Amino acid sequence: SQQGEEDPQALSIQEGENATMNCSYKTSINNLQWYRQNSGRGLVHLILIRSNEREKHSGRLRVTLDTSKKSSSLLITASRAADTASYFCATDAWTALIFGKGTTLSVSS
Amino acid sequence: DAGVTQSPTHLIKTRGQQVTLRCSPISGHKSVSWYQQVLGQGPQFIFQYYEKEERGRGNFPDRFSARQFPNYSSELNVNALLLGDSALYLCASSHRDRSYEQYFGPGTRLTVT
């Protein structure tokens, strides 16, 4: 079963614009992660935020976590064509990662 | 260092057949997990192995089985293939048996006809 739900399902923007995608989950978490997937290939780990953290940055990525609302957001600033991919949030259930359905981001030049 | 490797890259099988997928983890990683990703969905957890023992199992039928070898590589076996088994099968490795900080391979695309 899917733990997280990303919103929107699809997002189209121009290069240079910011992209924001959201994730909601159902149960308590220890941490939440974001992954990127290019063209149906392997997943690339982007960032992990722990349940006691509210915000985390990594390069052009900014992740927020609101445990009271069971939601997280991923902001990609100054988007590039190379950011075109599917983005997934994942929560951990001890040995398993539980993924949402993902947001497909398309960045056009 | 080499990342997680998987073989084969693509595979076409017929309903009822059996398939074996292979995964080599990152050097030094003792845990391997398997995920199934059908088109348009997020990956779904199948198994985790740590130190050659099964540590977790997702909601998949007994037709799915796996094992881990002394060198920490792993095989996923699927018997009596169904059309619905067509998917991208992803392998991930990590240092420990916890699920965070997993590193994924490129996947094996299985098509069942």
Topology (SSEs and partners):
The complex is a heterodimer of chains A (109) and B (113).
Chain A: E1 5-7, E2 10-14, E3 19-24, E4 31-37, E5 43-50, E6 55-58, E7 61-66, E8 71-76, E9 85-93, E10 96-99, E11 103-108
Parallel strand pairs in A: 2-11
Antiparallel strand pairs in A: 1-3, 3-8, 4-5, 4-9, 6-7, 7-8, 9-10, 9-11
Chain B: E1 5-7, E2 10-13, E3 19-24, E4 31-37, E5 44-50, E6 53-57, E7 64-68, E8 74-78, E9 87-94, E10 103-104, E11 108-112
Parallel strand pairs in B: 2-11
Antiparallel strand pairs in B: 1-3, 3-8, 4-5, 4-9, 5-6, 7-8, 9-10, 9-11
**Level of helix content of chain B?**
under 10%
The H-and-E topology of chain B, N to C, reads as EEEEEEEEEEE
The count of helical stretches of chain A stands at 0
Helix/strand class of chain A: mainly beta
What CATH first level of chain B would be assigned?
Answer: Mainly Beta
Oligomer: heterodimer
What is the compact description of this entry?
The complex is a heterodimer of chains A (109) and B (113). With 109 residues, chain A is mainly beta.
